[in-house]
């Protein structure tokens, strides 16, 4: 099925067209489900989300994708139990600072490192690793060191204004991924504050190991120095002399 390119499903279809296939998909921060993530390949899926109210959505996904496993726990840098804040109205969990907003409750949550989840799940690499938690990406990545070494495609959402809230910024994300051998491969989603798209709110960054076959295949397909491009460019330059509408 062909999708709009500027969405997660469309981006993953373009990766599949290069011949890449994951051994398993790791979805950290499932919420009501990650649109476009599950249907490109028929592979095992690890559905990881700590919110009690989100289990029903994971069960719905499992009915459609029989290879999906449900992990109703919080991914973190330690396996055990941690205090956190829960917002029942939105089924949001924050394991970091106490929330002062009305409606937030303090609770204890079972936590697991992604590495422990992957080991217990018994899935095989290469992995497609997706992370969208809004609150503690840094801790989750710390608990996924072994997983990331066997990952060939990462999708991580980062909020544009996290710096104002002293959260995990895109600058920090780039540093963390670069230190683990990943390079920016794509932007597979953009989130805005309203339907008019007046303010950019979040970006879904995609990363791949820079020396991987996938990255090299993408580079080869993206190169401008192709015959089609070089044949077309002189005509474009001549047309611009007659009617340059860039200014």
Give the SSE layout.
Blueprint: H1 8-17, E1 24-28, E2 45-48, H2 55-64, E3 68-71, E4 74-76, E5 80-87, E6 92-94, E7 105-113, H3 114-121, E8 127-131, H4 137-142, H5 145-148, E9 151-159, H6 170-179, E10 182-192, E11 200-209, H7 213-222, H8 227-242
Parallel strand pairs: 1-2, 1-8, 2-3, 4-7, 8-9
Antiparallel strand pairs: 5-6, 5-7, 9-11, 10-11
Number of strands: 11
Order of helices and strands: HEEHEEEEEHEHHEHEEHH
Overall SS class:
alpha/beta
Q: Give the integer mean of the pLDDT values.
A: 90
What's the CATH class label?
Alpha Beta
How would the global form be characterised?
Answer: globular
Give a short account of the largest sheet.
7 strands, mixed
What share of residues are in beta strands?
25-35%
Number of helices: 8
Radius of gyration: 20 Å
Number of domains: 1
Helix content: 25-40%
Q: Which fold name corresponds to the CATH topology?
A: Rossmann fold
């Amino acid at each position: 099925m062909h999708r709009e390119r500027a969405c997660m499903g469309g981006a993953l279809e373009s990766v599949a067209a290069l011949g890449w296939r994951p051994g398993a998909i790791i979805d950290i921060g499932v919420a009501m489900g990650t649109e476009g993530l599950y249907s490109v390949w028929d592979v095992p899926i690890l559905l990881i989300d700590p919110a009690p109210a989100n289990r029903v959505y994971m069960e719905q996904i499992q009915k459609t994708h029989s290879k999906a496993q449900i992990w109703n726990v919080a991914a973190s840098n330690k396996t055990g139990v941690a205090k956190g804040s829960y917002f029942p109205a939105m089924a949001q969990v924050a394991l970091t600072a106490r929330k002062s907003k009305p409606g937030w409750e303090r609770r204890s949550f079972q936590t697991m490192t992604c590495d422990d989840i992957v080991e217990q799940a018994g899935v095989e690499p290469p992995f497609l690793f997706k992370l969208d938690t809004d609150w503690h990406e840094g801790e989750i990545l710390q608990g996924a060191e072994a997983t990331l070494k066997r990952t060939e495609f990462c999708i991580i959402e980062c909020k544009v204004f996290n710096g104002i809230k002293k959260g995990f910024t895109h600058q920090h994300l780039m540093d963390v991924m670069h230190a683990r051998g990943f390079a920016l491969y794509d932007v597979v989603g953009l989130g805005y504050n309203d339907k008019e798209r007046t303010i950019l709110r979040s970006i879904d960054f995609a990363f791949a190991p820079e020396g991987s076959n996938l990255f090299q295949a993408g580079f080869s397909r993206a190169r401008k120095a192709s015959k089609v491009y070089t044949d077309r460019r002189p005509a474009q330059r001549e047309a611009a002399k007659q009617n340059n509408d860039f200014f």
